[in-house]
Amino acid sequence: MKRNKNVNKKREDEMRLVTEMIRLYYKKHEGDAQELIDYAAMRISKCPFMETKTFCSACKVHCYEKTKREQIRAVMRWSGPRMLFRHPILAIRHLIVERKQKKELKTV
After folding, report:
1. DSSP state of 62
2. Using an 8 Å Cβ cutoff, are 90 and 17 in contact?
3. Phi (first) and psi of residue 51, to 5 degrees
4. Per-residue b/e over 10-34, b at no fewer than 16 CB within 10 Å?
5. How far is the C-alpha of 49 from the C-alpha of 67, rounded, in Å?
6. pLDDT in tens, 83-97
7. For the chain, which residues make up each domain, given as ranges?
8. How many whole angstroms separate alpha carbon 40 and alpha carbon 18?
9. What is the pLDDT of residue 38?
10. Cβ-Cβ contacts under 8 Å for 9 (sequence gap 6 or more)
11. Three-state DSSP class for 108?
């Protein structure tokens, strides 16, 4: 039960982060933010690696279709630096988890 709770929490955290980044991006760019949010939610909800991975960017399997993957990369590149000012807690938490994972990978 505890494991399921952790996985669900990770899904929620990742979805919140991705949603905020997409919304931030589409405030300044044309396009359908909700379509990409819905697509990301679907992919995150079905991710079989959620228990062991940190974020989609760190995953070896790319489950996003090519056009959506390009869209989400553009969103991440543009929104990432701006998240520190708009959502500092989310951004710092993301950086901490990402760095922790990189350290773990180096020691393996």
Report:
1. -
2. yes
3. -65, -35
4. bbebbbebbbbbbbbbbeeeeeebe
5. 22
6. 999 999 988 988 887
7. 2-107
8. 8
9. 97
10. none
11. coil
Q: Is 82 exposed, middle or buried (CB count within 10 Å of its CB: 0-12, 13-18, 19+)? A: middle
Q: Which amino acid is at 44?
A: I
pLDDT at 59: 73
For residue 27, the model assigns a pLDDT of: 95
CB neighbourhood size of 103 (10 A): 9
Residue 8, SS3 per DSSP: helix
Q: Exposed, middle or buried, 38 (CB in 10 Å: 0-12/13-18/19+)?
A: exposed
Q: 63: closest CA among 80, 41, 78?
A: 41
pLDDT in tens, 61-85: 778 899 999 999 999 999 999 999 9
Task: Give dist(CA 75, CA 73) in Å, integer.
Answer: 5
Residue 104 and residue 54 in contact, taking contact as beta carbons nearer than 8 Å = no
Residue 79: exposure state from Cβ atoms within 10 A (0-12, 13-18, ≥19): buried
Banded pLDDT at 33 (limits 50, 70, 90): very high
